[in-house]
Design goal:
With about 240 residues, this protein is an alpha/beta fold. The chain folds into two domains: about 140 residues, Rossmann fold (3-Layer(aba) Sandwich), CATH 3.40.50.2300; about 90 residues, Winged helix-like DNA-binding domain superfamily/Winged helix DNA-binding domain (Arc Repressor Mutant, subunit A). A five-stranded parallel beta sheet has the order 2-1-3-4-5, sandwiched between helices. Helix 4 packs parallel to helix 5.
């Protein structure tokens, strides 16, 4: 069963999504807690949000994740001892099922690029509204793309000096149909749009996406696009 399926089953069973927050400013943590605690983010009967821990730096956040293994971590990019980007990388290496949303004051393309490469599912600014934050959390918990995959690939394409890895390194290769779905997914198309284009059911596409995520070793569609780009699995038309 794929990463997304496992996470969905856990959330459906518990009716609660467990969150941890890291920011070196107490007021910032309190603000996020107030915006999130007790809120619901959809699902049958509504999936409640539960803030189960807080940290003031990256090292404390890693300790929390090891001890509590939450569903989602909200992490400030700029923190003492271990910054948010390094913390995100460590979390994703140890606990790939934990989704990470990075929070920053700066709308910086380089930060965005590093957030993507570190494995973050989303990258939001600190002036985000409660409605926008809840919408982001909802999509991340569902395993949906918050960042447009095609924009992500274009941004990655501006890098130089990196040698693409080989798709043969995959333990289980993608089938021709999965590569076709991956191509469309990486253009930012939804499951419904892909299903319409390939004249199959949405449920069939959902299964293909779950298999793709599992084979690429990622937990959301944006990371799938990034990984596919690194492996040279995408046609150049997606990078125009």
């Amino acid at each position: 069963m794929s990463t997304i399926s496992n996470k969905s089953l856990v959330l459906q069973k518990s009716r609660s999504a467990r969150l941890v927050i890291a920011d070196n400013h107490e007021l910032a943590r309190a603000g996020l807690r107030t915006m999130l605690i007790g809120q619901h983010v959809g699902g049958v009967g509504g999936v409640g949000l539960e803030v189960i821990g807080e940290a003031k730096n990256g090292r404390e956040m890693l300790t929390l994740c090891r001890r509590l293994q939450p569903d989602l971590a909200l992490i400030d990019v700029r923190m003492p001892e271990l910054d948010g980007l390094a913390t995100c990388r460590s979390i994703k290496q140890e606990f790939p099922l934990i989704s990470v949303i990075l929070i920053t004051m700066h709308e910086n393309p380089q930060y965005l690029l590093e957030a993507i490469k570190s494995g973050a599912s989303a990258y939001v600014l600190k002036d985000i509204t409660q409605r926008e934050l809840l919408a982001t959390v909802r999509r991340v918990l569902r395993g949906e793309s918050v960042l447009n995959p095609e924009i992500v690939i274009r941004l990655l394409g501006h890098q130089s000096g990196e040698t693409p890895q080989q798709a043969e390194h995959l333990a289980v290769p993608l089938s021709p149909r999965e590569r076709q779905v991956l191509q469309l997914l990486s253009q930012g198309q939804t499951n419904r749009e892909i299903a319409h284009k390939l004249t199959v059911s949405v449920s069939t596409i959902k299964i293909h996406v779950e298999h793709i995520l599992a084979k690429l070793g990622v937990c959301d569609r944006t990371q799938a696009a990034v990984r596919a780009s690194e492996l040279g699995l995408l046609e150049t038309t997606t990078r125009k």
